[in-house]
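Researcher: Go.
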Amino acid sequence: MPEKFYITTPIYYPSDKLHIGHSYTTVAADAIARFKKLSGYDVYFLTGTDEHGQKIERKAAEKGMDPQRFVDEIVASIRQLWKTMNIEYDDFIRTTEDRHTAVVQKIFKKLYDQGDIYKSEYEGWYCTPCEAFWTQTQLKDGNCPDCGRKVERVKEESYFFRLSKYQDKLIKHIEENPDFIQPVSRRNEMLNNFLYPGLEDLSVSRTSFKWGVPVSFDDKHVVYVWIDALSNYITALGYLSDNDEKFKKYWPADIHLVGKEIVRFHTIIWPAILMALDLPLPKQVFGHGWLVLDGDKMSKSKGNVIDPVKLCSKYGVDAVRYFLLREIPFGSDGNFSNGALIYRINSDLANDLGNLVSRTVTMIDKYFDSVLPKASDTRAQDTELVEMASGLAKEVEASVNELQLSAALAHIWKLVGRCNKYIDETMPWALAKDSAQKPRLGTVLYNLAECIRIIAVLIGPFMPQTPDKIFAQLGISGNTDLTSWDSLAFGRLTPGIKVLKGDALFPRIDVEKELGTLNAQLQAGKPPETPEAAQISIDEFARVLLAVGKVVSCERIAGSDKLLKLQVALGQETRQIISGIAKWYPPEELVGKLVTVVTNLKPVKLKGELSEGMILCAEDSAGRLSIISPEKEVDHGCQIR
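Model: Structure:
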């Protein structure tokens, strides 16, 4: 029997504008699920929509619509987006479905009957957009600490869940199971910011609106959204239903994949509910970062969202999926920019992979009349390539198991690069000029074709449409013996098959022309335009003081994926500077480096740390940063004029 694997994404709140950041989570989950299926697992992949709550009720009323009709229309567009993004889920759960609401009522009643839910009165701060309650101390400048919007003071009768009862048990579980919350930064945040300071009991019902699952024994109340929404992971499997076979088969979940803003709900509230229900906890909750635009989280209200449908229409879904999965180390925030997207398409897809396939098939067509030759003249020159191809599946599998999807693709592209180098080393065009070298030429082209086949099999989970195009050019379409996980041993490709030249997999993009028009075409809502920089006088420029500094120590800032804390020597003084360059520079690489510092900036606090200056960097069209350093060794502290 194959091993079971159950993966979930958060169920999305119905929004009329899902942006590329939402797609990121689901594409990642889909790639993981597809890879597990490819490698022989019995996989169940769940996604869906969270459709209840005050915000939905209000929005529907504003449009003069019944809430159910309002969410029905939006959910249809979400399903269509996942179809566009080639998301291959096994179930799509809606919290308005009978199969869900009936079980949520049973869960609520069960917890009430055993004393884990009790009635009292709630008074506190509530954020309607986030469907979250906050204490006074958790507010940020009087607003919601997650979204920054205004909160409302709420006072009403409520049922409470005894969250505090499970505090010690939760701490014990997290401490004894270090992989339960990943990455480690999220684990530390939950322990230090929430669990160690102490948990309060949680309000789990509302009476101020009606759009929710009614409490079965008290119809004035509807179930609080986080009890309602979080239960989807077991209601979808048939928990407490007449048919619970899937629940028995797949629970506990192997991975809950969530955005970092909802880690608290999935690693504190949800596990406590499961403990109260005497159910096993999920094996892992992975809180990934955000896809940001110009350093700011994408948000419809900020006008900086990118429409994934338009991106896919323009560049193809596989190119967009590849960019999302390759560009961002999973778990960290990742920056979306048009330049970075086009760079990946041109460099990795058009130049590297596309060119490799095209050159190989063209040479087999030209030198062997489209018939794949056999490998009959193997030499030491081939060893590294064959060994790399033979070990690739194991390397990729290890990275996927660690949820390092960018690293998995990097392993594959290492072989792509080695194949292109192999062509340059062996020079098939030169071998073709000497008839005595035909066996050697055949061996070189066979090795290339076999590497391409292995590459095509392994990119399938990440780029589902591309492998079939490659298999067609190799002449092995529909041959499962050559396109499955079990076929990944080197040498399975059969000499004598007919290759077929095809269109370019990924046509190159004219970068300058594309960047000139892309923002206006692709952005669903434009951010405010930046005014043209005003000219300044030499006297105004002279007010900016620049000096050469030398980094004497550097470390990461806890709880931040972007910030580094540097101690920078400036002549007779040393200053602390906080810089958002962690993505491009490991701390140890910066120690001893000369940097350019703006020395007369007003000090500010970032993540609670004082920053007394700014390190200057250059940014290229792909969004990559490079520190500006003096050309020659100079004394630190000297002024830049």
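Model: The chain has three domains: 4-288, 335-487, 538-640.
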